[in-house]
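Continuing the batch. This is chain 6 of the set; chains 1 through 5 are on the previous pages. Same settings as before, nothing changed between runs. Recording input and output for traceability.
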Amino acid sequence: MLEALETQGIIDLPDNLQGEPWFTPYMTISQDFTQYMTAETGLGETNFILTPAEAADPGHLVTRYEFVQMSVRALQAFNCFDIDSDGDGLPNFDEENIYRSDPFNPDTDFGGVNDGDEAANGTDLLDPEDDFEPAGFFEPGIYGVEEPCITCPCLSDIDYDGDLYPGDTVFAIIQNALGEIFGVSNKVKVHKTPQ
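Output for chain 6:
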């Protein structure tokens, strides 16, 4: 069970666990694995699989009921409602049960905007056509690409799967973290659909 929790990224076991007999370090850790929890998961309702009494008798044949109790403790070791497998800002639970999006793909509809941003913007996580809806000061047909500028002049690629259509306008802005715009580049009008 400890190795299953490690495989899921909930705990991080030390390398080369050794003991005499071999299972001694596992028995010790299974009584309190707080220090092995990963920073991303945090503690859930429990931080153990075995009670001290259960660990004191490693030769005990486990009943089905006892195994279920241990399994429930393992499942309660982390808050599964907060797991975000694809790092898009939406927990897996919300993606599967509210938005019906893919918890292992940060951009379910391949439209160019990650699922968390789409949920925040109120767009459909399953519709690629609405990923670059006009927002704020943008006029229809102008797309914003958030990419930091680290060279001068700025080199930027529009690297998303959304569509650009003839008549759309592309330009760059310089803004701070508060959203204040300091400058706008030349506007380039799209004359034909990019290949």
